[in-house]
Amino acid sequence: MKEKLFAKFAELFGDADEAGFYFSPGRVNLIGEHTDYNGGHVFPCALTIGTYGAARKRADRTIRFYSMNLEKFGVVEASLDCLENKKEYGWANYPLGVVWAFAKKNHLIDTGFDMVIWGNIPNGSGLSSSASLEVLTGVILTDLYGITDLSMIDLALIGQYSENNFNGCNCGIMDQFAVAMGKKDNAIFLDTSSLSYEYAPVVLKDAKIVITNSKVKHSLVDSAYNDRRQECTDALHALQSVLDIESLGELDMETFEKNKSVINDPVRIRRAKHAVAENQRTIDAVAALKASNITKFGELMNQSHISLRDDYEVSCEEIDILVDLAWKIPGVIGSRITGGGFGGCTVSIVKNDAVDTFIETIGKAYKEKVGHEAEFYTVDIGDGARRME
Ligand code: GLA
Fold it and tell me: Which one, of 181, 208, 172, 219, lies nearest residue 342 by Cα?
């Protein structure tokens, strides 16, 4: 990859002398969905697929971005003197947002830079191509400008800050955290209320993680996401009239059930119920994994899907078809929607000897029912974002 990236860099920007080489992964969340902005737990892992970048400092205040995946945008040019989100920048609003966030947080970027990227995370699939790009940019900036007082967690927070305030999606911290802090063969058990975390080895013995891409992305994803977040905030405010809590993540199911009537709206009750139950499922799932009880882990994944489908309502017909098909296949330990929802991917744990049947059976039935092909990736868990040699 490095050769192609550097050849492009040289073609566009004269030569690639002294350009740095960087990588930032995508992520998949195993369980703990829509809990991160509710102060609950999540359990994502970084993937070995991701975004590669080549970058070099310039002497003036110009910033130039080029994506080998989205060549139609050409070289996107911006300036340090005008850090604004512009529609015509397209994808480059993500790295530019990180430059903006560095400035906002008083980390000095005093000259521009040139940056070329190429990635193998399918766009819009819910595997965090945008968080990958944000954290990649953070790593590039700290490296190019010799900024040493930012940890990888700081880079995750800066990525989230730029996505919230520069790109308008009110996302939680899970994606950027997983991308920044990923560790090979481990998932990250993160408490989003304190950012305390623990690595848990994902030992599946005779099974694999299979991601299935529905290849649908329903519009209004960001606005529906922001709506869900607001509904949870409304529910929390109502509960705070009777409970001394700061987030839904502090509640157990029993306390929630006893007090839920103060929310006084069936939709918001279901949203909050999901947040509370999913947090508990995540804690239980990590305990099951540590106890090598993969069957239990899979059951909790299945329950997570049902809750996201019925109570949180972030699934869609195509994803439900994929999950229903998966549940019927012997050797599937668990299967659920993963990521923000409204399309994107499912994550399944599948016994090694059932993977071929899984791909063939679901591939065929999905095409018949939906009219287009799904894509399958048997993935490995990789390390977080970094400078490469
Ligand atoms: C998106 C957001 C995350 C998280 C998930 C749902 O991926 O970026 O912060 O909320 O959705 O779990």
Answer: 219
- Specify whether the CB–CB gap between 121 and 128 falls below 8 A: yes
What is the CA(20)–ligand 1 centre distance, in A? 30
Is residue 310 flagged as an active site residue?
A: no
Which of ligand 1's atoms lies nearest the C-alpha of 174? Answer: 9
**What separation in Å is there between the alpha carbon of 222 and the centre of ligand 1?**
10
Q: Identify the burial level of 350 via C-beta atoms within 10 angstroms of its C-beta, where 0-12 means exposed, 13-18 middle and 19 or more buried.
A: buried
- Would you say the pTM of this structure is higher than 0.85? yes
pLDDT in tens, 98-143: 999 999 999 989 999 999 999 999 887 889 999 999 999 999 999 9
To the nearest 10 degrees (0 to 180), the angle between helices 355-370 and 317-327 is 140
Strands (E) in 70-125, as ranges, are 76-79, 113-119
Cα–Cα distance, 57 to 33 (Å, whole number): 38
* Strand 207-217 to 41-42 pairing: unpaired
DSSP helix/strand/coil, 210: strand
Q: Which atom of ligand 1 lies closest to the CA of 314?
A: 6
What pLDDT was estimated at residue 245?
Answer: 98
Q: Strand 20-29 and strand 44-57: pairing?
A: antiparallel
- Sign of the torsion formed by the C-alpha atoms of 3, 131, 341 and 358: positive
Helix (H) or strand (E) holding 197: strand 196-201
- Ligand 1 contacts (CB < 6 A) are 29, 33-34, 36-37, 171-172, 174-175, 339-340
Atom of ligand 1 at shortest range from CA of 131: 8
